Amino acid sequence: MQDPDQRQEFTQPQHAAQAAPAAPAVRTAVIGGGVIGISWTALFLAHGHRVTVSDPRPGIDREVHEGLLRIAPAMAALGRPLEAYEHRLTFEPDVARAVTGADAVQENGPERLDLKRQLWATIEAHAPAHALFATSTSGIPATDIAGALEQPERLVVGHPFNPPHLVPLVEVVPGARTSPETVERAVAFYRSLGKQPQVLRKEVPGFVANRLQSALFQECVALVADGVVTAAELDAIVTSSIGLRWAVAGPFRTFHLGGGPGGLPHFLDHFGAGLEKRWDQLGRPRLDEQTVALLSEQAERDFGARPVAALEDERDAAQIRLMHTLRPAPPTPSA
Amino acid sequence: MQDPDQRQEFTQPQHAAQAAPAAPAVRTAVIGGGVIGISWTALFLAHGHRVTVSDPRPGIDREVHEGLLRIAPAMAALGRPLEAYEHRLTFEPDVARAVTGADAVQENGPERLDLKRQLWATIEAHAPAHALFATSTSGIPATDIAGALEQPERLVVGHPFNPPHLVPLVEVVPGARTSPETVERAVAFYRSLGKQPQVLRKEVPGFVANRLQSALFQECVALVADGVVTAAELDAIVTSSIGLRWAVAGPFRTFHLGGGPGGLPHFLDHFGAGLEKRWDQLGRPRLDEQTVALLSEQAERDFGARPVAALEDERDAAQIRLMHTLRPAPPTPSA
Fold first, then answer.
1. Model pLDDT for residues B244-292, shown as the tens digit of each residue
2. Alpha carbon of residue A260 to chain centroid
3. B307 and A248: CB-CB below 8 Å?
4. Which residues of B touch A162 (CB under 8 A)?
5. Mutation to test the B interface, candidates A35, A196, A208, most B Cβ within 10 Å
6. What residues of chain A lie within 8 A of the CB of B260, using their CB?
7. What domains are there in chain B, each with its CATH number?
8. What ipTM is given for this predicted complex?
9. Which of A142, B169, B233, B318 qualifies as a FRET site for A93, CA 20 to 30 Å off?
10. Neighbouring-strand partners of residue A133
11. Taking CB atoms and an 8 Å limit, are B209 and A242 in contact across chains?
12. Residue B51 is inside which H or E element, if any?
């Protein structure tokens, strides 16, 4: 069943940077066909891979096809059109059968430990021995899920920043017993899909991107609840300053440059005390009824005139233009 | 001395969106010729305005000219080349004389209340009655500085996100007694320079952008100090996820879209409890000796191979490409 050459594609990190058209097709199993599962499906299909979607819900095939239609323009704009994929996409509600013959399993089941443990025990029992095991979970440690496996070294978190077909980041978070080989293969696989995987050195709740996002959002809520700015005004401040900055240079690099010739050490030396003082002044709001009502009212007023789907398409189109702009020039082909 | 038409340029908000080449020259006084003062100077000159830099330090003229040379490529890339400005740039160490005949005063003195109060008392005593008064302070409320003025309604904070010649945001923060007219004129002036001014509804320490930046940075420090990721890895996570997002859509819009058709209300309803739980798990690091040593060591290792100035030029070039990408298409010229 398994052509050994086929699995080399994502077991060899040095192949990852190659243009994906040359890469052989990977047989993927996407477990769970919700928003995240559909987005992974689009990404895998756009890279020429095979996808078996496993989701017990009735009408899942129509749902996935409709989702792919919605994603198609974004994939085309990304230079990865969703073409002639019908024969590469199959549906198999039974998880055991869905993973038979899979080279890679990306699981997007409900965020409940008991369900994930059950799913993964089934997957392990039926997937080929070489298959890569990744869970999209945004919050459950691989260590906890892998407790249900006979070979816990095979499972790793591959948490995408939503939606996976678009945003480059995939947080690769090994559990206590995940093997370095699994991590390496996951990184190579995601990289072959044009993603920017980042391996975390420690399992922490929420991983990194969502923790950072929630830290910023807490102060956003504090400032709006305090009446300093409205939600839309705050958004305008972010997109015209720190958002622009952090799209091209992260917080540490930004402050390194903010330190002048002395870099970050100079910055911390001169502004560290001020930063600590500021930290002590940050708001600690709760999402109580009154705050939720205020934020909802402002969102309705500022964003409610147009359907969310239209705003999303607009945002994603801008996002893609920006990604094209920031993408490094392709290397000169060697003779 | 004063041609009334000249001051209309920034007293009439409806003129702000016009292409600036048509706007008459404004006579600006830039008080304090440090990094921020030089950056404002470049921006004002690139828009055809006159600038008198007032700074008592010896050699300030050479310093400013050198600074302008460094900024020139960025202004050219922004489509606002710094050309033939020599006759529009003068130096006058005496503040009283520097503001005589100024239409707009942008003060960038040391961040000390006593010094700023002294400076502004002098400025008020010698500037024309129509002159716009703005301070670049990042932390001192206009209310406190304006206590030294006979007409406190004239002073407003115009806090740029560094550097002002490049980053669009200017936080316009009125003090308790700042007049609506002053706020309106400041907004129109900054808009005429291609900036994105945002008026705050309340004076809070650190204003908005720096508070948000410090909230995110606190969690950055926590995660690096905890060994979850290195500084450079954290930066890569930001630029490949939330940074990209926030360059095109702020945090509220992002979560509005994250709520699906139900928008932010649905998002808060479904994820609010999880967010609050996450807030309680955020790190509360201090910048103690050990943490500063760790961050400095990582910055040196990850960014130290190249001079800060080179990294800065590279970052700013990427920033400008991104701004061009995100800039809305110019309106079709009317016949």
1. 999 999 999 999 999 989 999 999 999 999 999 999 999 999 999 999 9
2. 34
3. no
4. 258
5. A208
6. 308
7. 4-199 (3.40.50.720), 209-304 (1.10.1040.10)
8. 0.92
9. A142
10. A105, A155
11. yes
12. strand B50-54
